[in-house]
Recover the amino acids of this structure.
């Protein structure tokens, strides 16, 4: 066994080297459950972590194990002391996919998000009682989804058999439509109206969807009347969601509406340190302050800057210090360059996909044109201060709902699809550097 433990720690070291971005400090808690006959079974502390490994690290564990042993290996991630699945009736449809990083512990509290965080903690302690519904809103990248995951983690750990449904509003709408098409509406209704905690992300997606709003209204009432907790997020306040029915707006305000603002400098420094620590890299205050001084509004961009620094440290073998961080992020203040031009984004995307701007602006809906168009919209939303309408205007006069939809789609894809995430990271950094 001693041998196996040593071999496994060698494998872990290699995995960390292959992919520092997805490496987490808690990898040190992983254990070998089995390593025989070409099977490496790795034991994880909980399902969220096992799922993270399956989604992001499977190939690298396999590659590392093969490199170390010189044999073909297949890898499996299991939860140590696994309990039966919560939603065993339909595991693939309802299993709760929580991101292991998105916990209260990993959420930095500052003046920008104190009310939101405190209300989420309160909801966790007594779901259905204190703030119902809880409605969080704010710009992209300020931690709304993170807090929703944290609530689910918290409720789940306090009450193992709690029935939790957590999904994006887009998914809710899509499932509703599918249920109607398949004549399974009452099954759908039953699934949503009998939960203890319903968490729905990005409810601005309900705009202009009358039938879905009607269904959501009844779901809301059924849960609310039974004192079941509802947690919602949006990119704007309830009253600002276009074409949302008055009766939904008023219900969304029944509980607590909390806004998240952009973090202050001090909060940004603390977030950078927290994120670095989570990945097992401790960085000095000086380096954290340098990054926080360069990146302002969006926390996802802070993480992007850290990623560049890790990757540079790994490839060059240098320790992370201020000088190295400055070099990694570029001398010319690339991240401080606040407004990227939308045509720089379009240039980068059209070059990558080998399509023309006129195609993006045309009515063509084929995937080969629609996807680059949606990526342009997403990047323009992330990297510029243009409004949805202006972004739509640059891409053939599309309306703001089309742009919002595109942004949601690419955002979801960049979470679920590793290739898309890498592509977005690459495009973002090449646009910033003006390549
Ligand atoms: P939103 O849903 O508001 O667009 P997310 O919840 O997806 O934003 O957050 C974007 C990234 O920023 C995530 O990686 C999240 O962990 C991180 N983040 C946001 N706020 C905080 C915070 N206060 N502390 C730590 N990380 C944060
Ligand atoms: Mg979100």
């Amino acid at each position: 066994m001693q041998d196996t433990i040593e071999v496994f720690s060698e494998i872990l070291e290699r995995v960390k080297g292959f992919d520092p971005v997805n490496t987490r400090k808690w990898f040190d808690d992983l254990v070998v459950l089995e390593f025989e006959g070409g099977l490496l079974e790795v034991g994880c502390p909980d399902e969220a972590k096992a799922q993270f490994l399956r989604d992001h690290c499977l190939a690298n564990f396999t590659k590392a194990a093969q490199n170390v042993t010189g044999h073909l290996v297949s890898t499996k991630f299991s939860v140590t002391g696994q309990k039966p699945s919560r939603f065993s009736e339909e595991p693939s449809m309802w299993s709760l996919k929580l991101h292991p990083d998105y916990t209260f512990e990993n959420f930095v509290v500052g003046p920008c998000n104190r009310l939101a965080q405190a209300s989420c903690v309160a909801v966790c302690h007594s779901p259905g009682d204190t703030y119902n519904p809880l409605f969080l809103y704010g710009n992209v990248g300020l931690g709304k989804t993170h807090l929703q995951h944290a609530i689910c983690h918290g409720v789940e750990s306090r009450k193992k058999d709690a029935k939790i449904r957590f999904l994006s509003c887009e998914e809710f709408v899509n499932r509703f439509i599918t249920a109607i098409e398949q004549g399974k509406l009452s099954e759908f209704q039953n699934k949503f109206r009998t939960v203890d905690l319903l968490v729905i992300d990005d409810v601005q997606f309900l705009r202009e969807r009358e039938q879905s709003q009607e269904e959501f209204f009844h779901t809301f009432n059924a849960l609310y009347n039974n004192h079941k907790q509802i947690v919602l997020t949006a990119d704007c306040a309830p009253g600002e969601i276009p074409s949302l029915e008055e009766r939904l707006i008023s219900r969304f305000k029944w509980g607590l509406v909390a806004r998240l603002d952009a973090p202050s400098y001090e909060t940004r420094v603390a977030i950078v340190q927290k994120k670095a620590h989570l990945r097992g890299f401790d960085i000095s205050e000086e380096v954290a302050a340098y990054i926080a001084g360069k990146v302002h509004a969006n926390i996802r961009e802070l993480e992007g800057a850290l990623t560049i620094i890790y990757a540079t440290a790994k490839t060059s073998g240098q320790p992370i210090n201020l000088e190295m961080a400055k070099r990694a992020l570029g001398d010319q203040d690339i991240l401080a360059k606040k407004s990227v031009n939308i045509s720089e984004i379009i240039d980068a995307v059209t070059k990558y996909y080998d399509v023309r701007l006129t195609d993006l602006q045309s009515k063509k809906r084929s995937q080969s044109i629609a996807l680059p168009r949606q990526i342009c919209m997403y990047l323009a939303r992330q990297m510029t201060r243009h409004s949805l309408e202006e972004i739509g205007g640059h891409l053939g006069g599309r309306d703001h709902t089309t742009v919002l939809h595109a942004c949601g789609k690419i955002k979801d894809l960049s979470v679920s699809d590793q290739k898309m995430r890498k592509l977005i990271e690459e495009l973002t950094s090449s646009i910033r550097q003006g390549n």
Notes: The first strand starts at residue 31 and ends at 36. The chain has 20 helices and eight strands. The CA atoms of residues 354 and 372 lie 10 Å apart. The beta strands are 31-36, 39-44, 74-79, 134-137, 164-168, 197-201, 229-234, 256-259.
